[in-house]
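Quick start: read one record
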Amino acid sequence: MKGNIEERACSLALYIIENKATVRSAAQKFGISKSTVHKDLSERLPAFNRPLYEQVKRVLDVNKAQRHIRGGIATRKKYKGR
């Protein structure tokens, strides 16, 4: 999804807010790297749409707080055989 950066950043933010998605899943959905998603949301989005940035930041903060739990669950599944 190349093209207008502001449009891409808004699309990413809306996707993450609506689906409570992670940066990794948004990157996979849009076919771009995690670094691009992070840069779009943390650096570019606040410059032109602060309210949307505040909303997406709340979702990403929750994801970050739960990251260690999801990692532990994934490891348990891996070694338990699902």
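The mean pLDDT is 92.
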